[in-house]
Design brief:
The chain is α/β, with parallel strands linked by helices and 213 residues long. It has 8 helices and 8 strands. It has a domain of 149 residues: Rossmann fold. A hairpin with an 8-residue loop joins strand 7 and strand 8.
């Protein structure tokens, strides 16, 4: 791992590779076991070069198997685990067919007014936002680091949306593919507590993700 340098926090954010639940069209949530599919394992292995070239100082993963496996197959041999970037708790919607869920009355509310919605016996978007905000609060302490984060589609969409200062519901306009990479730099040189974020690229596959800005 490299040493800190400069004033910017450099983030390489990876969505876990394709899981078994993804191949079945299910909303997995936190249901385990949900390992990577054979295709997902290949995707994760293809991330190794980009991850190595990024020269990270720190790796942070969701505790769920599909994220851990993604980093391990990408050649990472040691990472922190954070519950703050675990998948949303979809409650009774977990492990259900996305096609069937899209027919439920609550589906439209999730798309149009997510902050007012709580998944049945699960988490609300407001609670999810709060833990992501807690995670972000440590960014200033990581000034100068190069951090790889492996998490989940909704978590990544919300994190990037919040970093860019967009209205909450607009996170729905972002789409994050399995095994895709997104890169942001957060500049703390001006003394801002939250820093000034720059989105360098979003939702790229390994072969399209250059390390240079």
């Amino acid at each position: 791992m490299s040493k800190k340098s400069g004033k910017s926090l450099d983030l390489l954010i990876i969505r876990h590779a394709t899981s078994v639940a993804n191949t079945k069209g299910k909303l997995a949530g936190r249901v385990e076991p949900n390992p990577l599919s054979p295709e997902g394992r290949k995707q994760a292995e293809q991330l190794a070069g980009v991850v190595e070239d990024f020269n990270p100082t720190r790796f942070i993963s969701s505790p769920l198997t599909r994220c851990r496996q993604t980093l391990e197959l990408a050649g990472v041999r040691g990472f922190e685990v954070s519950d703050e970037i675990v998948e949303m708790d979809y409650g009774k919607w977990s492990d259900k067919s996305l096609k069937r869920l899209s027919l439920l009355p609550g589906w439209k509310k999730v798309q149009r007014d997510p902050l007012s919605f709580r998944f049945p016996q699960g988490e609300s978007f407001e609670e999810c936002r709060e833990r992501i905000t807690t995670f972000r609060s440590r960014f200033a302490k990581w000034e100068g680091e190069r951090i790889v984060i492996c998490s989940h589609g909704d978590i990544i969409r919300i994190l990037i949306n919040e970093l860019l200062g967009r209205e909450f519901s607009t996170f729905q306009q972002l789409h994050i593919f399995p095994a895709s990479l997104s890169r942001l730099q957060v500049d703390f040189a001006g003394g801002s507590e939250n820093g000034l974020p720059r989105l360098l690229y979003l939702n790229r596959i390994a072969s399209q993700a250059p390390i240079a800005p």
